[in-house]
Amino acid sequence: MTSALLQLDSVSVAFGGLRAVQDVSLTLPAGTLGALIGPNGAGKTTLFALMSGFLKPDTGRVVFDGRDITGRAPHWNARDGLTRTFQIVQPFAAQTVRDNIAVGAHLHVPQRAAALAEAERVAARVGLGALLDKPAAELTVAGRKRLELARALATRPKLLLLDEVLAGLNPMEVAEMVPVVKDIAGSGITVLMIEHVMQAVMHLAQHVWVLAQGRLIAQGTPAAVTTDPQVIEAYLGHGTAARLQAVSA
Amino acid sequence: MIRDVTGILIFALAVIALTLLLSSGVWLNALMMTLYAALLALAWNLLGGFGGQFSFGHALFFGTGAYASAVAQVTHGINAWAALALAVVAASAAGAFVGALAFRYGLKGSYFALVTLAFAEVFRILAVSAGFTGGGVGMMLPLQESVANLQFGSRKGFVGLALGCVVTALLVTAWLRHSRFGAQLQAVRDNEDAARALGVDPRRTKLAATVVSAALMGAAGAFYLQVFQYIDPAIAFGPHVSVEALVGAIVGGMGTLWGPVLGAVVLHALAESTRNLFGNLPGLNLVIYGSVLVLIVMFMPRGLAGAGRSVRGWWRGGRD
Q: A249: number of CA atoms within 13 Å, CB side?
C-alpha cells in the first residue's frame, strides 16, 4: 500500500449544539483521486475546512505528509503543499486573471516576472489562456471555477482539496472540466474533491467517502458506494433502499 | 516597473524645473504644501489603497514622527538629519505596535478605522500630559538656518526635501505594484480567505504594510516640524492630518500610483481657488470645497485616477 498523504483520526467539531463533523477518520493515500460525497448539510465543506486549517477540530488529529497539522493556520499548510478551493468562488475580483493566478505562483516564486510566466503556464493548463488579461469579475461561473482551480494549482500543491468545482456548470462545461481535473491527478497531485455531479464522481474517483449528518457512513469504489443501502437512504430517505431493491428484483 | 520609474523620474524633473522657474514665495509655498499633502496621501494609500485597511488615525504616526524629531533635536541636541531618521524609526515602531494589536485581534473595516482613531486620541492625550513633550504648550524648534540643520533659508530647499520624500513614497508604491509583497497585500485586500488558502499570512502582510505606511507618515511629521518649527498635541495627533491623508488618497484614487498625487493637487487647487474667489464671504469656500468632495465621492467611487481610466477605456472602445 502506498503511504498515506492525509490522515484524519476521529476528527470532530461542533458549532454550539450542532455537531457538524463527528468522529470522522479517513486515510487518503498519495496519488489517489478521491471524492467526498453526501447530501446537502452533511458537513463536507466543514471537513475540508478542518483539513486545510480554516477550522480547528474540537477533538481528533489531522496528519498531512507524516506531520501533525491539527489546527495549524492555512497559510502554513499551503506552504507544505496542502491547499483548497472554495465552493463559493473567491476571486480577487479587481485583479486580472493573470494577477490572480500569480498570487498562487508567488508562494514558491519570489520574482514577479517568473510568477507571471508561471501564471500563464497554469492558465493554459486549465483552459484560461485566452482570458489572462480579463478582470476576474468579468468571468463567467465556469471561468471563475477554472480560476479557483488555477490559483490553487499555481501553489504547486501535493494535495488539492477541490470544493465543488463542477457545481453550477452546464453539462458541456462539466464535460470540459472533467479532463482538466483528470490531467491534474495524472500529473502526480493527490486530489480530494467534494462533488455532487455523480456522473463526474463515477468517472473520476478511485475511492469515495460518503458523509451524512457529520458522520462517515460508507466508503469504497464509486460502484460499491452507490449501491450501498445506507447511502441510498441518506440521499433518498428511510426505507427507499428496500423499495428500490424490490423494484429492481 | 520601468514605465512607473520613468514616470516618477519625469515627475521629479518637472517639479525641479518648476521650482527653479518659480520665484514667488506664494507659489513655492503652494507647491511645497501640495507635495506635503501628496506625501500624506501616498503614505495612507499604501495601507488603505493597497492593503484595504482604512485607517482614520494616521496622524498617530505623523505625530509620533514629529515629536520624535522634536524631542531628539530640542532635548537631546541631535542633528536634524539624524532626527529625521529617528522620526521614521519611531513612527515605524508605532505602526508595528498598533498594527500588531489590531491585526492580532482580527480588527477589520470600520473596527480598524475606529481603533486607529482611538489610538491617535490616546497619543494626543499622552502628549498633553507627558512631561517630555512639553505638554499642551507644544515644542518649539529654535531657528538656526543651515542645510546641516535641515532648515533652509529659501522655500526651495523645503520643496526639494518634500520632493525627496514624495519620490521615495512613489518608488515604494511602484515596487508594491510589481512585487510579490504587493501582490500578496492586494490579495489580502480583495479576499483574505482566498489569500490564506494560497499561502499568504494576512497578519504579517498587513503588519508590514502598516509599518511602511507609518514610516512615510513619520517622515511627513518630521518635515512638518522643520517647516513650521512648532508642534503641539492638536497639530500632531488631531484629526486634521488623518483626514487630509485619507481624503487625498480617496479622491485621487485608492490603490493607484498617481491617484494620491492627483488628489493632493486637485484638492489644493480647489481649496486655494475657493479661498481666493470667495474670501470676502467667510465659510463659503468650505461649503464649495465640501460639495465638490461629496460629488467626487458619489460619482467617482474609484477616484479621479479611476475615472480617468474609465474615460480612456471608453474612448478606446469607442474608436474600435
A: 6
Maximum separation of any 2 CA atoms in chain A, in Å: 64
* pLDDT computed for residue B318 by the predictor: 52
Q: Which residues pair with A8 in a beta bridge?
A: A26, A62
Beta bridge partners of A82: A159
User: Number of Cβ pairs closer than 8 Å across A and B?
Assistant: 80
Domain boundaries, chain B: 2-21+28-237
Shortest alpha-carbon distance between residue B143 and chain A (Å): 48
A103, A112, A134, A149: best mutation site toward chain B, by most B Cβ within 10 Å?
A103
Interface contact B190, partner A, CB < 8 A = yes
A208 vs A223: CA distance, rounded Å: 9
Are A95 and B201 within 8 A, CB to CB? no
Per domain, the residue ranges of chain A are 4-248
Spatial CA neighbour of A97 closest among A31, A146, A37: A146
Per the CB < 8 Å rule, is B191 touching A91? yes
C-alpha span between A149 and A178 (Å, rounded): 12
DSSP string covering chain A: -PPEEEEEEEEEEEETTEEEEEEEEEEEETT-EEEEE-STTSSHHHHHHHHHTSS--SEEEEEETTEE-TT--HHHHHHHTEEE--SS----TTSBHHHHHHHHHTTT--SHHHHHHHHHHHHHHHT-GGGTTSBGGG--HHHHHHHHHHHHHHT--SEEEEE-TTTT--HHHHHHHHHHHHHHHHTT-EEEEE---HHHHHHH-SEEEEEETTEEEEEE-HHHHHT-HHHHHHHH-TTHHHHHHHHH-
CA distances from B60 to B92, B127, B232 (A): 11, 11, 13
ipTM above 0.90, yes or no: no
Coil, strand or helix at B302? coil
pLDDT tens digits, chain B, 320 residues: what are they? 889 999 999 999 999 999 999 888 889 999 999 999 999 999 999 999 999 999 999 999 999 999 999 999 999 999 999 999 999 999 999 999 999 999 999 898 899 999 999 999 999 999 999 888 888 888 999 888 888 888 888 889 999 999 999 999 999 999 999 999 999 999 999 999 999 999 999 999 999 999 999 999 999 999 999 999 999 999 999 999 999 999 999 999 999 999 999 999 999 998 888 888 877 777 887 888 888 888 888 888 788 887 777 777 777 765 44
Whole-model pTM: value is 0.90
> Residue with C-alpha cell 458619489?
B298
CATH number corresponding to A4-248:
3.40.50.300
Cβ-nearest to A95 among B190, B198, B202: B190
Burial of B47 (0-12, 13-18, 19+ CB in 10 A): buried
Q: How many CB atoms lie within 10 A of CB B311?
A: 10
Residue A99: its chain B contacts at CB < 8 A? 183, 186
